Amino acid sequence: MGYGYRSMSQDELKGFTMEVTFDHVGCDLTLFAGDAWHYTTYKITFGELQWWRNSGRYSAEADWLRSEFVRQVLKKPDVADNMPHSGPREWMKPEDQGRYKPNPFCIFLSKWQVS
């Protein structure tokens, strides 16, 4: 018996998207893997986000986080929409989805994993 994907709402079908929420310490970055019940969450402080940005690794994802900070915290969606890599973001390339192999982006984030 399968999961019954056909009866899931659009909010439950997440694909391989990234979502982020910010607080006074940093952010909670969530990577979904198919649906709302398969995800991994990472807690990253603002200092660690700055380190990530300066490292040059996964710069497109770091740019996306920056645009989401502008959208959510600074409340400037019009500015965020014009920033690089703004908008909905997938963390895994479509050609790699469904393959069972270590994902380099997840390995990079693993030190901040909380769930």
Oligomer: single chain
Question: What is the rounded Rg?
Answer: 15 Å
Number of strands: 5
Run of helices and strands: EEEEEHHHH
Going across the biggest sheet, name each strand in turn.
Answer: 2-3-5
Q: Give the integer mean of the pLDDT values.
A: 86
Instruction: Report the total helices.
Output: 4
Largest sheet: 3 strands, antiparallel
Helix content: 25-40%
Structural class: alpha+beta
Shape category? globular
Termini distance? 27 Å
Strand content: 15-25%
Low-confidence parts: none
3D architecture notes:
The protein is an alpha+beta fold and 115 residues long. It is 30% helix and 21% strand. The strands form two sheets. The chain has a three-stranded antiparallel sheet. Strands 1-4 form a two-stranded antiparallel ribbon. The mean pLDDT is 86.
Main attributes?
115 residues, alpha+beta, three-stranded antiparallel β-sheet, two-stranded antiparallel sheet, 4 helices, globular
Précis, in short:
With 115 residues, this protein is α+β, with helices and mostly antiparallel strands. It is built from four helices and five strands; from the N terminus they run E-E-E-E-E-H-H-H-H.
Secondary structure topology:
Elements lengths: L12 E3 L2 E5 L3 E7 L1 E2 L3 E7 H10 L3 H14 L4 H5 L22 H6 L6
Antiparallel strand pairs: 1-4, 2-3, 3-5
